[in-house]
């Protein structure tokens, strides 16, 4: 008589690392050899999708006796219009792969996927509840953002082929569960530098799609630098005509977004629950502007266009009034087409601006951003020039102490964490990585994961953290494949650090979940770096 299978207890805890799995296998073998009876231990690798979610939700209650199957007559039902964009996003993803109509219906009448409001207040603005029953998947949220985040989780509970752009065979099953989830931080960001190398609107949209799947909710576009000015400013047309005509390496072209294209990118991001933060770096990193207008230079002479990768050699002319007219025109035009609350003024590496002038500059510029209804964010250097606690310094240093940032935190500023030696996605993984740079060190996946945003900077505790953002600088990147190689798998690492609880931070538990994303990325055509530190699922 064959032994009854072991009770289907809770799946093996993710504490089982690679080493202990070998021990487990050896033990199992021993049992087989010894007693001649096959005792199947619940394998640590036969994970259900509930054990493979990135970022890790706050609470998951599996219901192993329940499976929901999406069928052709399923509808996506919304209780109010606030859930329409999330419903449309989900439909746009599942219709191609399932071939189902997945019509969107107002009101909850039948089987399928249901987006309701009235979620538990505990989930706040960005959280959600996701309940899988035999006939329905119910996502409750208090806001549109919450529904977007619930949908990102549902996508990961479906088979990876749900992400395919062509019709796949089913079944389309979702494991029974009750999930209650909400983020640790309000800001989970990704930055793309489109100034060093220009990326087309479609390439930017591709990256937006990829970051949205990990509950990223801010997309920071680095739109100007020494090598390029990338957004049309109608009152200063030479900025793109000249400043947008080249890039690192010297490629020539109309390498910029018209304001219509920018508005389209902003709207596209919104349909994925993402808010765009435009950055115009100043007073340094401004050679493209200085090459476009002679009058912006103190000596009245245009600078030559620059296609190299040095930093710190340029500065707007602090003493000239026209500099602030220029900045006001830029802030005015861009704020008018940017629904998001934040305007990024850069402020980094102003090495050619005397310190006193830097302070003078910021004292004139910060009020301009406020005048057009936006809240300034910027690389952390600017924060020493102001006592305004509503402004957001983005820490990008490699040290774990910064007196000005700690003082700002003390006063009440919320800090956006982007330590370069942890989460700069353009850092090489290892010395063999062809793309990227290494000035902040080599950043393998485990290094990117191995820090606590709430305890990283001395004097900057959990309550002073606004969130985590992963910048991707593009001095060495030209294609979407280049972006994906550097961003995956470390962007999902940043997403986990920004969303999941500090208590859930554990590499041995996280690595298998990250590895389980591999098949999904393969279906999506993401050219990720298959780090040997991660147990990639086949
Ligand atoms: N530092 C510069 C970036 C870019 C980066 C590349 C900041 C804030 C090095 N400034 O990071 O312009 O060149 O890793």
What this model shows, in words?
The protein is α/β, with parallel strands linked by helices. The protein folds into two domains: 18-181, 2-Layer Sandwich (Chitobiase, domain 2); 187-506, TIM Barrel. It contains 16 helices and 15 strands. The chain has helices spanning 18-35, 84-98, 144-157, 201-212, 238-241, 259-270, 287-290, 321-336, 355-371, 403-411, 420-423, 445-449, 480-487, 490-499, 507-515, 518-524; strands at 59-70, 75-78, 104-106, 112-116, 128-132, 136-140, 172-181, 187-193, 218-222, 275-279, 342-344, 375-379, 392-395, 415-417, 465-472. The strands form two sheets. Strands 10-9-8-15-14-13-12-11 form an eight-stranded parallel beta sheet. Helix 4 (201-212) packs parallel to helix 6 and helix 8 packs parallel to helix 9. It is globular. Bound molecules: ligand IFG. Ligand IFG is lined by residues 311, 348-349, 379, 396, 424, 426, 437, 473.
Topology:
Blueprint: H1 18-35, E1 59-70, E2 75-78, H2 84-98, E3 104-106, E4 112-116, E5 128-132, E6 136-140, H3 144-157, E7 172-181, E8 187-193, H4 201-212, E9 218-222, H5 238-241, H6 259-270, E10 275-279, H7 287-290, H8 321-336, E11 342-344, H9 355-371, E12 375-379, E13 392-395, H10 403-411, E14 415-417, H11 420-423, H12 445-449, E15 465-472, H13 480-487, H14 490-499, H15 507-515, H16 518-524
Parallel strand pairs: 2-3, 2-4, 4-6, 8-9, 8-15, 9-10, 11-12, 12-13, 13-14, 14-15
Antiparallel strand pairs: 1-7, 5-6, 5-7
Helix pairs in contact: 2-3, 4-6, 8-9
Bound molecules: ligand IFG.
């Amino acid at each position: 008589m064959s032994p009854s299978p072991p009770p289907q207890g809770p799946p093996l805890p993710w504490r089982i690392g690679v080493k202990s799995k070998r021990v487990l296998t050896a033990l199992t073998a021993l049992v087989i050899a010894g007693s001649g009876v096959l005792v199947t231990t619940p394998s640590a690798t036969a994970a259900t999708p509930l054990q493979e979610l990135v970022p890790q939700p706050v609470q998951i209650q599996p219901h192993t006796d329940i499976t929901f199957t999406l069928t052709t007559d399923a509808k996506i039902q919304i209780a109010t219009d606030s859930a329409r964009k999330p419903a449309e996003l989900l439909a746009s993803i599942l219709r191609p792969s399932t071939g189902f109509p997945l019509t969107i219906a107002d009101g909850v009448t039948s089987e399928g996927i249901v987006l309701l409001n009235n979620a538990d207040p505990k989930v706040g603005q960005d959280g959600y509840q996701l309940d899988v029953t035999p006939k329905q998947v119910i996502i409750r949220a208090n806001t549109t953002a919450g529904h977007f985040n619930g949908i990102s989780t549902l996508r990961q509970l479906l088979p990876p082929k749900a992400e395919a752009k062509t019709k796949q065979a089913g079944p389309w099953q979702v494991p029974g569960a009750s999930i209650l989830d909400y983020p640790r931080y309000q800001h989970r960001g990704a930055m793309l530098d489109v100034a060093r190398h220009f990326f087309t609107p479609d390439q930017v949209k591709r990256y937006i799609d990829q970051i949205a799947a990990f509950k990223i909710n801010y997309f920071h576009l680095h739109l100007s630098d020494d090598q390029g000015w990338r957004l049309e400013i109608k009152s200063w047309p030479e900025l793109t005509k000249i400043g947008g005509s080249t890039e690192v390496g010297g490629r020539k072209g109309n390498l910029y977004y018209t304001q219509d294209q920018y508005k389209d990118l902003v709207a596209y991001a919104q349909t994925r629950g993402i808010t765009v933060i435009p950055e115009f770096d100043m007073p340094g990193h401004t050679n493209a502007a200085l090459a476009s207008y002679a009058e912006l230079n103190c000596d009245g002479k245009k600078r030559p266009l620059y296609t190299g990768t040095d930093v710190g050699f340029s500065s707007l002319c602090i003493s000239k009034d026209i500099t602030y007219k220029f900045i006001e025109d830029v802030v005015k035009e861009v704020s008018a087409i940017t629904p998001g609350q934040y305007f990024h003024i850069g402020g980094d590496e102003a090495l050619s601006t005397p310190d006193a002038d830097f302070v003078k500059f910021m004292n004139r510029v910060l009020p301009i951003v406020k005048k057009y209804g936006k809240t300034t964010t910027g690389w952390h250097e600017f924060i020493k020039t102001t006592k305004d606690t509503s402004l957001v310094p983005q820490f990008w240093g490699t040290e774990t102490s910064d007196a000005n940032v700690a003082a700002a935190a003390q006063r009440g500023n919320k800090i956006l964490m982007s330590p370069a030696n942890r989460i700069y996605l353009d850092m090489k993984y290892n010395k063999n990585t062809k793309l990227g740079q290494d000035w902040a060190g080599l950043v393998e996946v485990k290094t990117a994961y191995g820090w606590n945003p709430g305890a990283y900077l001395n004097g900057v505790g959990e309550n002073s953290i606004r969130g985590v953002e992963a910048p991707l600088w593009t001095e060495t990147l030209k294609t979407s494949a280049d972006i994906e190689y550097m961003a995956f798998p470390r962007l999902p690492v940043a997403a986990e650090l920004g969303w999941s609880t500090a208590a859930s931070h554990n590499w041995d538990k996280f690595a298998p979940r990250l590895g389980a994303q591999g098949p999904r990325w393969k279906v999506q055509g993401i050219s990720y770096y298959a780090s040997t530190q991660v147990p990639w699922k086949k």
